[in-house]
Specification:
Blueprint: H1 2-30, H2 38-49, H3 54-85, H4 87-102, H5 109-116, H6 120-144, H7 148-156, H8 161-198, H9 204-214, H10 217-247
């Protein structure tokens, strides 16, 4: 029992140690031109996060991401349940949604800039564009894969459509829905960061582009490290919840 309890943290530490060793090895190979060493990156990161302007950039990114992810979840769940529940609408619109999802999102960014302008609204729109479609598709598939006996039970009980969603479809579909939320989380974050990289004057994406423009390797590595640590920590947490939900099915 004790061995299995510590297996996860031990494997995580081994993975982190292996990644740091690989990072150090790549640094020795390519040198300061393309990489900063792990120690130098940690020192610069500590200096960066304690600086006066970092909090502003972090807040701007987290605000845009939080709004975009909340909108992605709400829109994705509503659209997914509607398309999954209404077979005709789902069969008609699902191929269109998949086709839109296949379009490289950067090609649509100029249109979003014209529609929303520079600033928070464009970052939120670009984040939603990335994150909402996976949530719609996973929710739609989860509703369609609900056991027919549960649907028949709802009809026998003469439940309304809203009651059917609340008491039958949502509890039955929540494991697959949560998988969609996990994917949507990562893609929404990517969308917000990309928006900051190309048309923003604040945020972690803007800092990353500033580092690239100035060829400041330490700044690039530090911002990248912060993004990776945040995304990996939340993704691991969501993955654990996802696995538990699927085990209960």
């Amino acid at each position: 029992m004790n061995g299995s309890r510590w297996r996860g943290p031990r494997n995580a530490l081994i993975l982190v140690a292996a990644l740091v060793a690989l990072w150090q090895g790549l640094y020795w190979w390519v040198g300061d031109v393309a990489l900063a060493s792990p120690a130098a990156t940690l020192r610069y990161t500590a200096k960066l996060v304690t600086g006066e302007s970092f909090g502003m950039h972090l807040f701007d990114t987290m605000r845009a991401f939080a709004i975009a992810f909340a909108l992605s979840v709400v829109i994705g769940l509503l659209a997914g349940f509607w398309l999954g529940f209404d077979r005709l609408s789902g069969d008609t619109l699902e191929p269109m949604i998949v086709a839109v999802y296949a379009i490289p999102k950067l090609t649509l960014y100029p249109i979003l800039l014209l529609a929303f302008g520079l600033g928070l609204s464009a970052k939120v729109a670009f984040g939603v564009l990335h994150g909402v479609i996976p949530i719609i598709l996973f929710t739609l598939a989860a509703v369609r894969n609900t056991k027919p006996i549960l649907i028949k039970t709802g009809h026998v009980l003469k439940l309304s459509r809203s009651q059917m969603v609340r008491w039958i479809l949502f509890p039955a579909a929540i494991p697959e829905i949560f998988t969609g939320l996990r994917v949507g989380f990562a893609l929404t974050l990517i969308g917000c960061l990309l928006a900051e990289m190309f048309a923003s004057q604040r945020g972690l994406g803007y800092l990353l582009m500033t580092g690239i423009g100035l060829h400041n390797v330490e700044l690039i590595m530090s911002v990248t490290l912060l993004i990776i640590v945040f995304a990996a920590a939340v993704s691991v947490l969501l993955l654990q919840i996802d696995l538990r939900l699927h085990r209960r099915v």
